[in-house]
Specification:
globular, four-stranded antiparallel sheet, Arylsulfatase, C-terminal domain, alpha/beta, Alkaline Phosphatase, subunit A
Length: 495
């Protein structure tokens, strides 16, 4: 009787520990627009992602998620819980995408999970400093270290130099999306990890970044697909800032069809969507593995991307810019029993919100002040009131205190796009360029989701613009932006 009682107590303790410290599977894609996911109403009608859709039916899908503006700062945010301007010591150096940081000044939070009994793992693309943190932040790591291997930084799908657990590096010849999924499945089944510990796995796919290479089995997908020409693919773009009049990624082909690099818009978008298919298949295999291994009930699953990607909208074939077409990510969060199923959250959220949310689910106290807000209230009631605005600050290739004093001239541009501050709250989005005398922007995304009509030029919205301008400064100061009081004056465009 005493032995039976002891066994029951041990089992009960294990169940209680599992509930308190669930596993976390964070699926993270690259340059991946929400428009490719068929459960999003903005998706093309021919796009099909049944397995990601199924994940959404098992959890909460967020209508508007702003995870980052481009690859590296988005990842830096998800390792620190800070906006780009708060990521201390992070810097670009040497040939692109070479980068470095001081781990004492810029600690990554997976280290804290290790210290609190988690087994931490990262698989796939690494893009945040040459130091990948193996042995400090990660117990298990199989990665393509882009900042270290700068000569092949575009090898997103084949021929990647993969480093295994901080040791040997070998060239991967297999299609990366499939291989990353296989490694993740092996890990979830117990290979290479302490099976007595809860685990955190950050699975970082390289898809669907350029060159947008589909798996061979998907090369015939979406034949005959049609992509409507966006309204403002070509200039002029009335009401937009001066820099937007110069965006010219596309030229007019026969019958005015948008062309880029001698290919039509439709052919580019078709190929891009083909490359998503392997991700969708991977999601199915990952979720099946969780179910078959009895881990589904105790695993928080997050699916998102570093940012979106525009195909013709506002003239872009690019990310970075503050328009939803460029940067809006898919975001789905699922966990049976703790997250309601098949719900949609209309409240805009940001990448900085994901880190405190993960800490909350894991039952671990935040080790430092995070810039975001725990999304647990929205995961309990997706329709709940949410007082927090979403802030994004795009500061090019500068991080931390290097952004305290804003550059001028061409240095304030990241490619064709100027540094900016974006604030999203409710139905409105406000964008303040960090260029003196440039036009600010305001959009009503419920009335006009295409963001063609800049309300900052309309006198009826003078007060709204003023309120958002002030609110952006408040949020910058709350999160410690050194340039909050140094931003150049902008113009509203009102007459």
């Amino acid at each position: 009787m005493k032995l039976a009682t002891t066994i029951l107590l041990v089992i009960s303790a294990q169940i209680a520990s599992a509930a308190e410290h669930p596993n976390v599977l964070f699926i993270y894609t690259d340059d991946h627009s929400h428009r490719t996911i068929s459960c999003y109403p903005e998706a093309y009608p021919w796009a099909k992602t049944p397995n990601i859709d199924r994940l959404a039916s098992q959890g909460v899908r967020f209508e508007s998620a702003y995870i980052g503006t481009w690859c590296m700062p988005s990842r830096a945010t998800l390792l620190t819980g800070h906006h780009q301007f708060g990521v201390a010591s992070m810097r670009m150096e040497g040939p692109y995408p070479g980068s470095a940081y001081d781990p004492e000044k810029c600690p990554f939070w997976p280290k804290v999970f290790r210290e609190n009994g988690y087994f931490t793992a990262q698989i796939g693309k690494w893009h945040t400093g040459v130091d990948t943190g193996f042995g400090r932040d990660w117990d298990y790591q199989i990665v393509w270290n882009r900042p270290k291997h700068t000569t092949n930084h575009q090898n997103y799908y084949y021929d990647q130099p993969i480093t295994y657990h901080g040791g040997k590096t070998e060239v991967l010849k297999r299609y990366s999306t499939d291989q990353y999924t296989d490694w993740a499945i092996d890990f979830m089944k117990g290979e290479g990890r302490d099976q007595k510990k809860p685990w955190y796995l950050w699975l970082c796919y390289g898809a669907v970044h350029s060159p947008y290479t589909p798996a061979d089995r998907h090369l015939k997908e979406y034949a005959g697909s049609n992509v409507p020409t966006p309204a403002d693919v070509f200039p002029p773009r009335p009401g937009k800032p001066d820099w937007m009049q110069k965006i010219d990624f596309w030229t007019k082909g026969p019958d005015g069809v948008p062309m880029s690099r001698k290919r039509t818009l439709t052919s580019w978008v078709q190929q891009y969507h083909q490359a998503v298919k392997a991700i969708d298949e991977g999601v199915a295999r990952l979720m099946t593995t969780l179910e078959e291994t009895g881990q589904l009930e105790n695993t928080l699953v997050i699916f998102t991307s570093d940012q979106g990607f525009a195909w013709g909208q506002h003239g872009f074939r690019h990310k970075v810019a503050a328009y939803d077409a460029n940067i809006r990510s898919p975001l789905i969060i699922s966990m049976p029993g703790r997250v309601p199923q098949g719900r949609v959250c209309p409240n805009p959220v940001g990448g900085v919100d994901l880190v405190p949310t993960i800490f909350s689910f894991a039952g671990i106290e935040q080790p430092w002040e995070m810039h975001g807000h725990d999304l647990t209230p929205l995961l309990k009631n997706p329709q709940a009131e949410w007082p927090h605005p979403v802030l994004l600050a795009a500061t090019g290739r500068k991080y931390g205190s290097d952004t305290d004093v804003l550059p001028t001239g061409e240095e304030i541009f990241h490619g064709p796009i100027p540094w900016y501050v974006m604030l999203r709250k409710g139905k409105y989005k406000y964008v303040r360029p960090l260029v003196k005398g440039e036009l600010e922007e305001l959009y009503d995304l419920k009335a006009e989701p295409e963001e063609l009509k800049n309300l900052a030029t309309d006198p009826e919205f003078r007060k709204t613009v003023s309120d958002f301008r002030a609110a952006a400064v408040v949020e910058l100061k709350r999160t410690g932006a050194g340039f909050a009081d140094r931003m150049p004056a902008v113009r509203s465009g009102m007459k």
